[in-house]
Task: structure prediction
Amino acid sequence: MTYEGWILLTACLVGISCGMVGCFLIVRRMTMLADAISHSVLLGIVLAFLVANSLNGIYMLIGATVIGLVTTFAIQSLHNSGVQEDASIGIVFTTFFAIGVILISLFARDVHLDVEHALMGEIAFIPWNTYTVFGIEIPKATGMLLCISLFATLVILLFYKELKLTSFDAALAVTLGVPVALIHYLLMGLVSITAVGSFDAVGAVLVVSMLVVPGSCAYLMTDRLSVMLLYSCLFGAASAIFGYYGALLLDASISGSMSAAGGILFLLTWFFSPRYGLLRRYRTMKTS
Result:
């Protein structure tokens, strides 16, 4: 595959994996948690490096997943103690992100870890860091994201009924004996794994965008969760493709252009959606 092909494939995998997971955050009204986890995982990555003294992907994945779950637990604990949910999210993720930044400046100055890389990533470098599988050189980030995308799809398929029920009616789920707390932390773990898998390639800004925007576009297109998941994959991939070519045209940041492309797609969907679009609402008001 060409250099450009690997970048597009990697970006599409980010859009697909984040888009699917983000759908459940949207229907649960927890989109700000995506911002919290995607920033907090920096602390997990730094701690994993300090403990293992290695930037190996598996250590990063474990560290970030643990911190993602700790972030969720801390936010829930503060909220249960009386702190407003949005304030809980702001307190926890800014604190964890700040600790991660401090640890980088103290112990990882000479390592390929820095705040700019954490926020924006650099997907253009992805094709140069490879390993060989069956005689084919594959970028490490692409291989990891492919595995994460397949894992996320498998988890969603296996626990689809439980995720759907707890997302729309947690009280009924409790009545039916569904382990609501366990499913909640399963989803948060999936968000953490997806975020850290995308983190090194595209940075926190695009991770947040991909966790929220494709699912939001899909939410405007359908009332069925299964169809929403499919649409979110399509919007995620479209944001990646249009953003990449937009970056080439403007000679701009690839991750930033992909985020901007997602925003443009959302505006178009918001306006032209056949179910909830502004144009349809205007026509309905005009004819009534």
